[in-house]
Amino acid sequence: MSTDTTAGAGLGAAAGAVGTEPVASPIRGPRTRLFAWREVVLPWLVSRLISDALILVLALQRARPALYAGFAKWDGGWYTLIARNGYGGAPVHGHESPWPFFPFLPAVMRAGGALGVPEELVGVLVNHAAFLLALAGLYRLARRHVTDRGAVLAVWAVACFPGSFLFSMVYPSSIFLAASVWAFLLIEEGHDLGAGLVTIAAVMVRPNGFVVALALAFALRRTWRRILPVCLPSAVFFGAWCVYNLDRTGDALTFWRAKSGWPEVTIVDFANRFHKYAIPHLALAVAAVVAVVLVWRTLPRAWIVLTALYLVPPLFIGIVGLGRYATECFPPFVAAGELLRRFRQRTVLAMFALSLVVEGVCAYWVVYSKWLP
Description:
The chain has one domain (33-368). It has 18 helices and no strands. It has helices at 3-14, 37-61, 75-85, 104-114, 119-142, 148-160, 173-188, 192-205, 210-219, 224-249, 254-257, 267-272, 279-294, 301-311, 314-317, 322-327, 331-340, 345-368.
């Protein structure tokens, strides 16, 4: 059977008649194989084939035939530079520098480079693997809170979201999604130490990753014997990163202050002056927030806290990047799965087809044009 036919069967089964499965218990959801073929592997495979093809074709259209011309575009160049050369000295105020980019992904790329694998290739491969792991965790976690059909649709929703091509690029989006999903899943399954270890990745992969630790602390409701093993390891690593910043630049918060080198657009700036490149970011973020708002009673409160902490502050700090944050924040996709299950199969398939078309447009803006994701 062809991939397209199998994909249609998988998505069609997920989009079938409403109300065929009971809602999974939010306390003890059913176990499932980690890499279930139809529910996890198939959405990953189909979405990566589409996303990778978009990136490669659009990069070649720019007359840049290098294999990684599309995958390592924009911030991917910074991560590659850090993996090869480190962070360097103190940044010059008002100029772009490597310091705003957190060290987890460059460290992984550097380790692969030490083995003789090109750093860009390491980044691409690691992100593909991390995205597969993220989908596996998302399906398992969603089944604890929504219907089985809603959980399947949640996986397809994140796999086909207009910004999902970023999960293939040299960005930390796949790692953040996987780490945040598994951190919440592990605390629900009682594995606090494991949750603490994966939270390190979420916190050390991007500057605002610490909101995952805050949301986890909220989920644990002041139960300090659990909060400490879950949140303390990432706090130690974050503190060590601040010490490193202080030692190299004389400023423990260089990673934050160095952002002044980038022109930022806040919601106030956008209201005063039209910035067309901010529109996709706002649109994707609004779609994510609306999905959560519509089914907020179904979702754990800590998920709502995570969504708010991750998607609201950028409105007042810098909108550019918000579309990427919406793409890698998992609660909106569980909410989307629960919403989509209420529609007929034909309608759901049409929605996913439209989402893939929009993904093509977004990939064109990022890879072919000069729009920053």
